[in-house]
Amino acid sequence: MHAALVKRRVANLAPVGARGFRWYAEALTDSPRANAGIAPDGTNTAVKITANTDAKVHLIAAFAPGNIPTIPQGSPYTFSVFVKSAGWRYVRISFEWYYADHYLDLDLLTGTYTMPPAGDYRRPRACRVETLPDGWYRVSITEVNTETAGGMSARVYFVDAAGSTNTPGDGTSGILLWGYQINTGGPAPYNPAPPLI
Questions:
Q1: Which of 83, 108, 131, 173 is the most exposed place for a label (fewest CB within 10 A)?
Q2: Is 137 helix (H, G, I), strand (E, B) or coil?
Q3: Residues in contact with 122: Cβ distance below 8 Å, sequence separation at least 6, in sequence order
Q4: Cβ contacts of residue 118 below 8 Å, gap of 6+?
Q5: CB distance 175 to 105 below 8 Å
Q6: What is the DSSP string of 46-91?
Q7: Which fold has domain 24-184?
């Protein structure tokens, strides 16, 4: 098993699960669809999300509005997720703290990624993209909360080649997701204990 999967255990704070998972989703088709592909651990537990044909933002979030946890100011947290193309090429991984969205855009065919330029508040404090077998990537973004209220949201967006989130899907092409995780501190191997995706 790849090192990104299991080593030391950390508490996975993402309130989603492969059975009865809760999402905030926007402009998706019949997704999220559970058990839609082979996950990095070899099980048929990957979740597929598919953008509909509307020319608008398509996303899925770990925390729905009104269900955002309070995080102490000054605390580092890491959002990580395994992603793979299911026909859609470009994806944005975003760790959002109220109005501050820290993100990177990843090409799921080449593994290359871009971020906002240095000095831009949206540029992640730290990030990591790990290339795994069978077209999977694990993306991790670490941020420190600077907001007094301390809420956060972990999101995956469909984007186009130019990085625009306002792009129509085709109703068929999608993204496979697995291992949504939010943990204290820096990047940590995935903890498959509940909750999981």
A1: 131
A2: strand
A3: 100, 101, 102, 103, 116
A4: none
A5: no
A6: EEEEEB-SSSSB-EEESS-TT-PPP--TT-EEEEEEEEEEEB--EE
A7: Jelly Rolls (2.60.120)
Picking from 106, 139, 111, 142, the residue whose alpha carbon sits closest to that of residue 124 is 142
Strand order in the sheet with 76-86: 33-37, 46-50, 174-184, 76-86, 137-144, 126-131
| Residuewise pLDDT in 10s, the chain (197 residues) | 455 554 556 677 665 443 333 556 766 776 678 889 999 999 999 999 999 888 888 888 776 444 555 667 788 888 899 999 999 999 999 988 766 789 999 999 999 999 999 999 899 989 999 999 999 999 999 988 776 665 677 889 999 999 999 888 898 999 999 988 888 888 988 887 554 44
Q: Residue 68's pLDDT is what?
A: 54
For residue 166, give Cα distances in angstroms to 93, 98, 123, 163. 15, 20, 20, 9
Domain limits, the chain: 24-184
129 phi and psi, to 5 degrees? -125, 115
* Phi, psi for residue 124 in degrees, rounded to 5: -60, 145
Structure tokens at 48: 């597929």
